[in-house]
Amino acid sequence: MVRLATVAKAGSEAGMDLEFRNVSHRFVLEGAPLPVLDRISLKVARGEFVALLGPSGCGKSTLLRLVAGLEPPSDGEVVADGQTIVGPDPSRVVMFQDPTLFPWRNVRDNVALGLEAQGVLRTGRARIDETLRLVGLERFAKAYPHQLSGGMAQRVALARALVNDPELLILDEPLGKLDSLTRLSMQGEIVNLWRDAGFTTLLVTHDIEEALLMATRIIVLSDRPASIKADIRIDRPYPRHRGNSDLVTTRREILGLLGFEAAW
Amino acid sequence: MSSLSPIAEHLNSSDSARAPIATRDNIARSGLAIGAGAAWLLLAFITLRWPDLGDWGRGPELAIAASALGAALIAGALLGTIWEPGAARLRRATPWLLALGLFLSVWQATTAKLGILPQPFFPPPHAILEVFIEDWAKLGQSVAASVKLELLGFLVGAAGGFVTGVLLGWSRAFGYWAHPIMRLIGPLPAIAWLPIAFYAFPSSWSASIFLIGLTTGFPVTVLTWSGVASVNSSYYDVARTLGASRLFLVFKVAIPAALPHVFVGLFMGLGASFAVLVTAEMMGVKAGLGFYLQWAQGWAAYANMYAALLVMSLMCTSFVTLLFKIRDRLLSYKKADVQW
């Protein structure tokens, strides 16, 4: 893994603080309101790596859509650096569960998407090359998405996010569909990138181990409508080992919170 | 070795240096090429040596051309390994050349020589050759006129259909007004407009552009619209989180994503527009291949009609080929599916 040198921002300036103020959200399903988020209040400090952990379908991804500004919350507000979020902004970038690369663009042009949309493509060419090198895909710049493996495609999606020099990286189960080895190495890579660049990171996952290995803080969410069940700090140095006794204890604690006390 | 024919022996000895394995294939191949050559020599023989029942011109020219092709095929079979790329290309065509030579021979025999097929409705090959030799200027002008009309009408219709389709897929307000109109007018065969259009437009030529455009525009509109409407919504999510404006979403996300659909629409529109082109030329426009056909029919010049039909099909297939070439270029990121 190449270290971020020039991509990183100067220490304390990097990252973004976030606050969820009494956020509720509902969808309308067949004419009836379906509440998905129930009065979520949460503060995330600049540079934290927060994992949102909860049962499948509990509304974790909806929370991320609100932070990304793709939807406004039904009630309450999400505040980033003191400003209420009203729409998407390239300082808050998302890596989705599917890479969703544009099939008609090659790898390089996919990575260039954000710079192009913001009208700064001409000044950003060197940055694109650098980011491609960072995720180890510089030799595949001219390849098209259908020629890539799942892990490579997700790396392109990561590069597409990082090239915008985000203050908040939003990860919506981005490793969920990868094979377990690719997954392991990308978990490590993302943690390294975050430690070097210092952006705030929100990770949605239903994999307790992934949250334990990567995050500085784990928010355990209840079943739908999601509310916060527990807020757990993980003060362990990186790289973490999955067999570490503290992590094993926390794992058991979280399993209990999710209603799996009896599980191994 | 001694049991093989001299030809095979020749092939064998010259091949053994490079490709010692595929000799049996080579024998079969040169056999086929010799057969094809023989078929064309047969055509030349029938044309020249068997007296015609009637008076059709250009028999000697056809015989010369056919025997030249026949001789070339046989020579190629014997010396096939001299120019490998050319030989490889020719090999693919050999079965077709054989079939074509036989077909023309049968055609020649059943028309000019035996009169089995009723005359003058089925002119012999050398009568059609005569049309090409003597009337090429008029045919050429007709092709030019048809290409111009078709191209203009198609481009107008394709552009209009594309813009309408994108707007239908993108703007609700536009859809409110345009959708009912499209549903009402789109399925109407453009030919039905013909009588009105010829009055309403200043010339039958501009009327024809309108009709061809209408025919092309409908499928392009519907397919573009469905293409834009079916764009994966997460493409928009990705672009929006990266700071994309509405214009960016239309031009850099929706349209490229919809392009494969658009080309299906263009293909359908092109196919349908040929019918309108020929009809319009037959009914009102005093130029083009449709008009030539009409004119030839008036003079009972059947050979001219067949010649015009042949040219017309070459023109239409060239248009389709061109469309596919453009498509393959623009959609080069996709794995090639259909080769036209």
Could you walk me through the main structural features you see in this protein, from its secondary elements to its overall organization?
The complex is a heterodimer of chains A (264) and B (340). Chain A has helices spanning 60-68, 107-111, 113-117, 125-134, 150-162, 180-197, 208-214, 245-257; strands at 18-29, 32-44, 49-53, 75-80, 83-84, 92-95, 168-172, 200-205, 217-221, 228-233. By secondary structure, chain A is α/β, with parallel strands linked by helices. In chain A, strand 4 (75-80) and strand 5 form a beta hairpin. Chain A is globular and about 50 Å long. The two termini of chain A are 34 Å apart. Mean pLDDT of chain A is 85; it is low at 1-12. In chain B, 78% of the residues lie in helices and 0% in strands. The relative contact order of chain B is 0.09. Chain B has two domains: 6-124, no CATH class; 136-330, MetI-like fold (Orthogonal Bundle), CATH 1.10.3720.10. Chain B has helices at residues 6-15, 23-49, 59-78, 84-113, 125-134, 136-170, 172-185, 194-200, 204-229, 233-241, 246-283, 289-298, 302-330. The model of chain B is unreliable at 1-20 (pLDDT under 50). Chain B has 340 residues and is an all-alpha fold. Chain B starts with 5 loop residues before the first helix and ends in a 10-residue tail after the last helix. Classes of the chains: A alpha/beta (264), B mainly alpha (340).
